[in-house]
Amino acid sequence: MSLPPSGTRPAPAREIDMMRCRACGREDRASEGYPCDGCGTFICLACTIRGATLCRDCLQRNPPS
């Protein structure tokens, strides 16, 4: 392994905290959403604002009456 030339700095590490929304499938920052009321998987903020509290799988298992 070689070292970078003196005076240069390596590129900063980028943290990736993206998660796929289990209600709509969109990727969003993990800190920008809430857990599903049924199983705890990630639901994005946009779906939460629209009133989604359950992921697709939980909705299929327990459809609203």
Describe the structure.
The protein has two helices and four strands, in the order ββββαα. The chain is an alpha+beta fold. The protein has a domain of about 45 residues. A two-stranded antiparallel sheet has the order 1-2. β3 and β4 form a beta hairpin.
Topology:
Blueprint: E1 18-20, E2 27-29, E3 33-35, E4 42-44, H1 45-49, H2 56-61
The mean pLDDT is: 86
Unreliable spans: none
Radius of gyration: 19 Å
Q: For the report, how would you describe the main beta sheet? A: 2 strands, antiparallel
Number of strands: 4
Shape: rod-shaped
Tell me the number of helical segments per DSSP (H or I, 4 or more residues long).
Answer: 2
Summary?
It contains two helices and four strands.
Characteristics of this structure?
65 residues; alpha+beta; two-stranded antiparallel ribbon; rod-shaped
